[in-house]
Design a protein that fits this description.
The structure is a single chain. This protein is an all-beta fold. 0% of the residues lie in helices and 50% in strands. It has no helices and 11 strands. Strands 2, 4, 5, 6, 9, 10 and 11 form a 7-stranded mixed sheet that branches. 33% of the residues are buried.
Length: 123
């Protein structure tokens, strides 16, 4: 059974940084892409970033490009999201995802989701 467990969320002031982690278990971590989505209050789930199985290819939403960095450690079965220069608009529940997406921007392309971790950015 695949499990994705996020951690690292919290309350931070605008301009600050947070690092999210997602520990995966249940299948061969290095065989799958990993990603992050977020859902802000009253909004649909939004693609944030993704990384391929080896870590050699990363992609970002335009809204976070240059501020967020996704990375993975295949020996620790963990994916990270380093978030810098945070803005109040980044406030959301952040979800870790795993799969072999046919279209990475679509939530339905991903096989498994974590339970989410809250990130709140105050102005």
């Amino acid at each position: 059974q695949v499990q994705l467990v996020e951690s690292g969320g919290g309350l931070v002031q605008a301009g600050g940084s947070l690092r999210l982690s997602c520990a995966a278990s249940g299948r061969t971590f290095s065989s799958y892409a990993m990603g992050w989505f977020r859902r802000a209050p009253g909004k649909e789930r939004e693609y944030v970033a993704s990384i391929n199985w080896s870590g050699g290819t990363t992609n970002y939403a335009d809204s976070v490009k240059g501020r967020f960095t996704i990375s993975r450690n295949n020996t620790k079965n963990t994916v990270y999201l380093q978030m810098n220069s945070l803005k109040p608009d980044d406030t959301a529940v952040y979800y870790c995802v795993q799969g072999i997406p046919y279209y990475r921007y679509s939530p339905t392309s991903w096989d498994y989701w974590g339970q989410g971790t809250q990130v709140t950015v105050s102005s």
